[in-house]
Amino acid sequence: MSTAHLFAPLKLGRYTLSHRVVMAPLTRMRAAVPGNVPTDLGVEYYSQRASSGGFIVSEASQVTPYGQGYPATPGIHSAEQIAGWKKITDAVHAKGGIIFMQLWHTGRISHPSFQPGGVQPVAPSAITPAGKSFTPSFQMVPFETPRALEIGEIPGIVEAYREGARNALAAGFDGVELHGANGYLIEQFLHSKTNHRTDAYGGSVENRTRLLIEVMTALVDIWGADRVGVRLSPFGVVNDAGEADPIGLYSHVLTRLAPLNIAYVHLIESRNTDAGEAGAPLAINDLRPFWSGTLILAGGFVGASADAAIRAGQGDAVAFGRHFIANPDLPRRFQLGAPLNPYNRATFYGGDAAGYVDYPALEPAEAAE
Ligand SMILES: Cc1cc2nc3c(=O)[nH]c(=O)nc-3n(C[C@H](O)[C@H](O)[C@H](O)COP(=O)(O)O)c2cc1C
Q1: Of 5, 102, 7, which Cα lies nearest the Cα of 330?
Q2: Between 92 and which of 50, 74, 77, 119 could a Cys-Cys bridge form, CB atoms 3.0 to 4.6 Å apart?
């Protein structure tokens, strides 16, 4: 298997990566509760995965207590959380890694049991998501109807992201990625299925894109454009999301993002299995013409398909989720053509060290083969 393209250096905004194997943002629900503070186990987990020059996007982290929708997800809104994350960023830097924080507000994918004062979660429109929500005690309950944000509250949402971005800077991150994917608040505004507003934030693609651009502009204010990225899932249906005209919407989104000159756009492919054939067309290829900047791809890749995608110019780097959970030394394994540890879904979310920091790295002897 050739991985020459995966191991070519890449300029990513202000940084130069020594390879293109990116660690995708991965929620693991193992923060210390109460407080939702990253732990020392988290330090070990990220440190294990920070191979030299590698690019890591942190697990999604709520910018405000109102933006939490899952138990034990870390936040970036308190002094304790900033201090906890600082240990992680220090450990990643000690290994030569580069780490951006993924900034998160779950919007309607939450439950009053997470909300200060037990209030309803907020969303662009009062539309109940299909399916079930977590509670803080890891129970599953039906979603409740969110409260539609008043237009006068939207500047406060932008401010929450700005504050999160400022805190990420204090926590020693190298940049921030806006979580604009997977059915959370930003995508709830983008998609026609979840945004039924009739004001300046709903209706036309221009209006539905407005919050995204306002938030991105705030992040660029804090960090500078060359340390800001955004993650989008144009064909996403996760968390009851849905867009009637993905190419129409996302071609507009990418066109509006272009003048911001951000470090990268990170697009999630619709498939989520490893069945994709190396070099096969991706759904997101249709959007490639609308983005001339750096593009990170994600979703169902293995080493060969990732290398082929880069060779074919489909993207510049590839993020790996599930394989990075199970393989702390994933870039090295790709480089050597070494076998991958299988991942165990049962330990993806919540729990302790098992399935978190105990996946083995290659022995030096195996690595030398
Ligand atoms: C356990 C788990 C947690 C995830 N958490 C996040 C997250 O916090 N933010 C995000 O944007 N995507 C999240 N994702 C999606 C992954 O980043 C990635 O896009 C997805 O797993 C597909 O890539 P893969 O086929 O390489 O696993 C998560 C996926 C998994 C399996």
Answers
A1: 7
A2: 50
Candidates 70, 184, 201, 356; catalytic one? 184
Torsion (CA) 254, 260, 263, 269 in degrees, nearest 10:
-10
Q: What is the pLDDT of residue 271?
A: 65
With the C-alpha atoms ordered 106, 107, 113, 119, is the resulting torsion angle positive or negative? positive
Q: Determine whether the shortest distance from the Cβ of 87 to ligand 1 is under 6 A.
A: no
Q: Which helix (H) or strand (E) holds 212?
A: helix 205-223
Residue extents of the structural domains in the chain? 10-368
**Rg, Å, the chain Cα set:** 19
50-99 pLDDT per residue, tens: 988 899 999 999 999 999 999 999 999 999 999 999 999 999 999 999 99
Topology of domain 10-368, per CATH? TIM Barrel (3.20.20)
CB of 25 within 6 A of ligand 1: the answer is yes
User: What tokens were used for 176?
Assistant: 């921030």
CA–CA distances in Å: residue 36 to residues 13, 70, 119, 171: 30, 11, 19, 15
223 CB-side CA count, 13 A: 37
